[in-house]
Amino acid sequence: MKKEDLFAKLRQGTCQQFDMPKEPVKGIVYDDVAKQFIEMSKTVGAKVIEVSPDDDLNETIRAAYPEAKVFASNVEGVKADRNPDAVAEAADLNGTDVGIIKGVFGVAENGCVWIPQTMKERSVCFISEELVILLDRNSLVNNMHEAYKQVEMTEYGYGVFISGPSKTADIEQSLVMGAQAARGVTVILIG
Amino acid sequence: MATSHSKKAAEFLKNPEKITRHDQTFWSVREKRDKMAAMLPEWEDLREHASQIKQHTVTHLADYLEQFANNLEKNGVIVHWAKDAQEFNEIAYGILETHKVKKLVKSKSMLTEECEMNDYLIERGIDVVETDLGERIIQLMNLKPAHIVMPAIHLMRDEVGEMFEEKGISTEEGNHDPTFLTQCARYSLREEFIEAEAGMTGCNFGVAATGDCVICTNEGNADMSTSIPKLHIVSMGIEKVIPDYDALAVFQRLLCRCGTGQPTTTFTSHFRKARPDGEMHVILVDNGRSDMIANDTHWKTLKCIRCGACMNTCPVYRRSMGYSYSYFIPGPIGVNLGMLKDPQKHSGNVSACSLCLSCDHVCPTKVEPGSQIYNWRQELEAFGTENKEKKLMANGMRTVFENYALYDTLLKSSSIVNYVPRKLFETKLNAWGIGHEMMQFPKKPFHQIYKQAMKELKEKK
Ligand code: SF4
Questions:
Q1: Is ipTM over 0.85?
Q2: Would you say B368 and B303 are in contact if contact means Cβ atoms under 8 Å apart?
Q3: What is the helix (H) or strand (E) element at residue B235, kind and residue range?
């Protein structure tokens, strides 16, 4: 089909035209954004660890996953066995116990964390059994309206809001973590 | 008097346990939605915005599609336009064939269901693997989705467990624990993701200002399907385009709260470009949507964001299940979409509505599916699919109501009905007799009692 034909048909067929709403939505605002974010993260199944900027992140991560063997990350200063920038194929990251990535900001109303692609193989965010998201405490916003004002894409042209571990309720409505992507998510809130 | 819907529903109602479970499951989802709504003081404001943004966008659709496609192309995405299901399937197959794809992993898309793409591709030798767990279960059982958000929710764990054993996905006989079964599916699907040469996703929202395709899932299967294979095909109905990120914020907040009662989907994924060394295609599909726009009464149906809330709340859907409807999308919105697609074929669904309008109240974009069903009922005569018996009865009633003398006489004698043997009412001819008790007619009509009461009142004064 030629797009011009479709456009002509749509323009001709439209019965009546409407304007955009004038005022924006006033989104909910919380007294304590961090408290709400932490609460929501737990509600959606994530763990939250609060650390200060001076704490040793590698120690924190190892302590949170004492049994994990294979770590993958390209975050500066994070010790890892695999680097998503250096693997030949996305599938080479299969078998990763813990993937460690950086979030840009978190949303208090629903526990979403914005993760733009900053690595060659983004599969590290999904294929890892467990996912650790590093997040600055000062980056939290109240709601999605504020969030989308801040969303910026990297050159890779991909980004995702993640809110807790992959989950499903497809079998008899019982909630199961780890349907396809990470079975568990730990947000490390720094600051 | 039975319609195609009520006949099929009667089949399912033979299993009262299953229907009760179905009813309760979806009602609990509706309750979760209510809780979510109550947590946001701006809830009604959000709905009103969603409705206005949608009515603006769909009535300026050509402009936004143009902007969207331009931005996609600027980012190196290849854009295709499909007039109908046939064209869509041909384009999808064409892309896959050029890349010599043998296996396609697919994240749930109702559009590919609408175009019956799976069968088309499978016939041509492509292994299509559904990756949403519910959708995968349905595919392996050769069934169709019974709900747009929870496609396999009508099945029991034993049915899934036995099928997994049969297909070798689970090796532990008799273990039908949902967590165990989900893990089995996880391992089996992982192999599929790694083997596949292409991934296909639907698209919940296309953002015109940036050229993002936004896909919302809880399982992360859209991301798995597109972060391992290098070829990504997006199948998208033209009504999915919205203006910008500000608008997206409104819909992102509503979609999941309304659909499943969660504060958000776990993954809200934005695709703007192909993967490094990869290719991204977007197929924009009309398949009747440009005709809907031109329908003065029903163009509003295009505002739908497919959250499924209207199904979850619908007393008829909850008690008759998805397969009772002749159109592949069930529930209030499905009744409307079916009528727009082919009224002759799907008018049997129009009866599947009690006009309680619960769907109008929960719909995040104010599609008013229930009110629209009411309108369809007024239009049935034009398609020659109106119910002849009801029409006859309605005409009879009109004769009675328009003629006071006749009405009065009938009322005076109505209590005679009380003496008619019950058996006579319980014939198959009287569809109302099924499942209903015959009412007791009062000895005196209300009018007489009223008149007498007024007279007595006057006399007392
Ligand atoms: S009609 Fe409204 S409630 Fe029903 S699926 Fe569409 S958006 Fe949701």
A1: yes
A2: no
A3: strand B231-237
- Cβ of residue B346 lying under 6 Å from some atom of ligand 1: no
Residue B271: is it exposed, middle or buried by C-beta count within 10 angstroms (0-12/13-18/19+)? buried
Tell me, using a 6 A CB cutoff, whether residue B335 lines ligand 1: no
For residues B149-176, one letter each, b for 16 or more C-beta atoms within 10 angstroms of the residue's C-beta and e for the rest, the string is bbbbbbbeeebbbebbbeeebbeeeeeb
Nearest to B254 by CA among B305, B312, B202: B305
Q: Give the CA radius of gyration of chain A.
A: 20
Total-model pTM: 0.90
- Cβ of A164 within 8 Å of Cβ of B266? The answer is yes
φ, ψ at A158 (rounded to 5°): -145, 140
Mutate to test the pocket of ligand 1, among B250, B254, B258 (most ligand atoms within 8 A of CB): B258
**CA dist., res. B356 & res. B371, Å (int):** 9
pLDDT in tens, A97-121: 999 999 999 999 999 999 999 999 9
pLDDT in tens, B320-360: 999 999 999 999 999 999 999 999 999 999 999 999 999 99
| Encoded amino acid at B149, one letter | V
User: Strands, DSSP E only, in B238-381?
Assistant: 241-242, 267-271, 279-285
Distance CA B264, CA B178 (A): 23
